[in-house]
């Protein structure tokens, strides 16, 4: 079901449009009300032929000045749905007024998404670049630099809630004449802990501001933001049907904890999964363990986690989108939680590395029965990082939930990385049965204890959408032949190897920093000392033989005869060694000189005949 407006501009329920109605009456962006030829030219240069469902419904409403709350699936074009009318409003105002002020504030939950939105604005305003100025406040720069950027009075500011409020509070960001406010990925803003920042922003912006909320789901968090920022918004609950052959095919594999690594190795080495893939893991250590494991077999991959600097993360995404890497291993520390009623209080690691508990669910339970969980050591991780939502990973063919998320909501966000823009995709999830949990401690994680319960929630949620999650059947007899190679690789990926790999990667990223480059140019001795001190670190033991798959491991029905015979044990020496004529031993015959046995041939004294 989706909502539409009645004659009093009130949202009423209406039937979801059929496939034929998806395109709507507006078949071009000009039909939606976009009049500026520079924007239409930019849209054409981006290759957009027809507006998507969310664009055809949201753009006319935003152009008419309505507050809009739009819910649409990932990859449906929500960014263009609010950027295009925003740009037209600014360009239209500048035709009649020369006054310059910050007209729009776009708030996003993660710094990666802020960078992506800023690039999208630059693309759509490419033919009006002299008239549209955008500032992105996601980079870690000094307050003086931020103040200098904002002093030029840009038209649009893109920032996370914490960064936006910090600049508003300091007076660097003036919102007195703000006309547009956009909350992108609205359902994540409160889940990422931005409640106080958003409340502060609310009290500082004008009351009659036009607000646009974009989200992939409609949750209680979205309802809270709607009541805080909007005034009678038009709600668009859009569900765009998949065409035949499109959408995500979802599979699940129930396996032991160490078999996750085995099946992942087999899938990529044997070509069972083709195309670009995103592998989601639960934490940073897990991402390095899996990468080092795959490196043993010559399977190239790259890592994306909250520990890396922002520029490094953005570069990793660009390299993945440019097909430099086909596999990206993303840790999902800041995953969306809180919609699993039957589970116990769910924990998730925040940006400081500590585990927080959902107080609403824990309320009323006897805390004496549940031992307190140990807090992990804090680490400098970016709380404004998120890989499962918002980031535009291009042409992703497969999403692998190496570690199942802790909620069905997070699962939806993860699998939304594939099958975007009318393409098909594959989602493969590994689930640990209760009886196999903690059976292989080196590869075990605490969240796997509830895998089966979370899977039940995921199945129910997907069935409501008409989606089916099928079992992915491996022939474990054939896969078993690869187990000893998997064990060899896992033994090389120790805790020390993981720690050294993390240290090495951070050191490399720091050395790429422009500030450090200048410092080491002035102090070359410090650089040589750093390289000499850390040169012997190795991420994992190199095992070249694991990079190639021998023929005898490949399943081939016609070659059974070569391995069916029972040869048995073959000793290195024959049973008669040391006995008989040909097996005589010189044991005890050699003299000792200086504690060593003398060679009997060299010490042999020959006598001439007749003497």
From TrEMBL:
Its EC number is 3.6.4.13. Residues 1-24, 348-384, 566-611 are annotated as: Disordered. Residues 59-236 form the Helicase ATP-binding domain. One of its GO terms (molecular function) is RNA helicase activity. It comes from the Eukaryota. Keywords: ATP-binding, Helicase, Hydrolase, Nucleotide-binding, RNA-binding. Residues 581-595 have a biased composition (Basic residues). Residues 247-477 form the Helicase C-terminal domain. It catalyses: ATP + H2O = ADP + phosphate + H(+). Pfam families: DEAD, Helicase_C. One of its GO terms (biological process) is maturation of LSU-rRNA from tricistronic rRNA transcript (SSU-rRNA, 5.8S rRNA, LSU-rRNA). GO terms for cellular component: cytosol; nucleolus. Residues 353-372 have a biased composition (Basic and acidic residues). Belongs to the DEAD box helicase family. DDX56/DBP9 subfamily. PANTHER family: ATP-DEPENDENT RNA HELICASE RHLE-RELATED, DEAD-BOX HELICASE 56. ATP-binding RNA helicase involved in the biogenesis of 60S ribosomal subunits and is required for the normal formation of 25S and 5.8S rRNAs. This is RNA helicase.
């Amino acid at each position: 079901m989706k909502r539409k407006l009645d004659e009093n501009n009130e949202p009423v329920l209406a039937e979801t449009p059929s496939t034929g109605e998806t395109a709507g009456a507006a078949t071009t962006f000009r039909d939606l009300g976009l009049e500026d030829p520079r924007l239409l030219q930019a849209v054409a240069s981006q290759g957009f032929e027809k507006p998507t469902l969310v664009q055809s419904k949201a753009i006319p409403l935003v152009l008419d000045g309505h507050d809009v709350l739009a819910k649409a699936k990932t990859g449906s074009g929500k960014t263009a749905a609010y950027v295009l009318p925003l740009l037209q409003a600014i360009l239209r105002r500048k035709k009649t007024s020369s006054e310059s002020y910050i007209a729009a504030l776009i708030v996003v939950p993660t710094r990666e998404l802020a960078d992506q939105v800023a690039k999208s604005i630059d693309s759509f305003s490419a033919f009006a670049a002299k008239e549209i100025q955008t500032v992105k406040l996601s980079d870690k720069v000094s307050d003086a630099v931020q103040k200098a950027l904002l002093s030029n009075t840009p038209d649009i500011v893109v920032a996370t809630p914490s960064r936006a409020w910090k600049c508003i509070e300091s007076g660097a960001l003036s919102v007195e004449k703000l006309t547009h406010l956009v909350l992108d990925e609205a359902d994540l803003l409160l889940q990422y802990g931005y409640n106080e920042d958003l409340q502060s922003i609310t009290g500082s912006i004008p009351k009659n501001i036009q607000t646009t909320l974009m989200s992939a789901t409609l949750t209680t968090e979205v309802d809270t933001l709607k009541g805080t920022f909007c005034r009678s918004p038009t709600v668009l609950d859009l569900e765009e049907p998949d065409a035949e052959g499109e959408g995500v095919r979802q599979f699940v594999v129930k396996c032991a904890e160490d078999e996750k690594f085995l099946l992942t190795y087999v899938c990529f080495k044997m070509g069972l999964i083709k195309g670009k893939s995103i592998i989601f893991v639960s934490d940073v250590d897990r991402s390095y363990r899996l990468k080092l494991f795959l490196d043993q077999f010559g399977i190239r991959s790259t890592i994306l986690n909250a520990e890396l600097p922002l520029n490094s993360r953005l570069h990793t995404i660009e390299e993945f989108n440019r097909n430099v890497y086909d596999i990206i291993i993303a840790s999902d520390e800041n995953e969306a939680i809180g919609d699993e009623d039957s589970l116990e209080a769910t924990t998730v690691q925040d940006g400081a590395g500590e585990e927080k508990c959902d107080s609403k669910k824990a309320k009323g339970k006897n805390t004496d029965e549940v031992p307190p969980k140990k807090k992990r050591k804090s680490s400098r991780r970016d709380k404004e990082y998120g890989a499962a939502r918002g980031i535009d990973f291009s042409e992703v063919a497969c999403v692998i939930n190496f570690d199942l998320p802790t909620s069905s909501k997070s699962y939806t966000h993860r699998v939304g990385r594939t099958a975007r823009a009318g393409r098909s995709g594959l989602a493969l999830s590994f689930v640990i049965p209760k009886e196999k949990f903690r059976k292989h401690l080196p590869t075990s994680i605490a969240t796997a204890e509830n895998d089966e319960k979370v899977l039940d929630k995921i199945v129910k949620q997907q069935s409501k959408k008409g989606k089916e999650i099928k079992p992915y059947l491996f022939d474990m007899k054939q896969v078993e032949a690869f187990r000893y190679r998997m064990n060899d690789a896992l033994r090389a990926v120790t805790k020390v190897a993981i720690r050294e790999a993390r240290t090495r990667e951070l050191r490399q990223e720091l050395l790429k920093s422009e500030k450090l480059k200048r410092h080491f140019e002035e102090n070359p001795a410090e650089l040589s000392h750093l390289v000499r001190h850390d040169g012997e670190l190795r991420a994992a033991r190199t095992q070249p033989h694991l990079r190639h798959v021998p023929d005898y491991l490949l399943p081939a029905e016609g070659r059974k005869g070569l391995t069916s015979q029972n040869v048995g044990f073959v000793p290195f020496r024959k049973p008669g060694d040391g006995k008989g004529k040909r097996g005589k031993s010189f044991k005890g015959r050699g003299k000792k000189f200086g504690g060593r046995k003398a060679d009997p041939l060299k010490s042999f004294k020959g006598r001439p005949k007749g003497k």
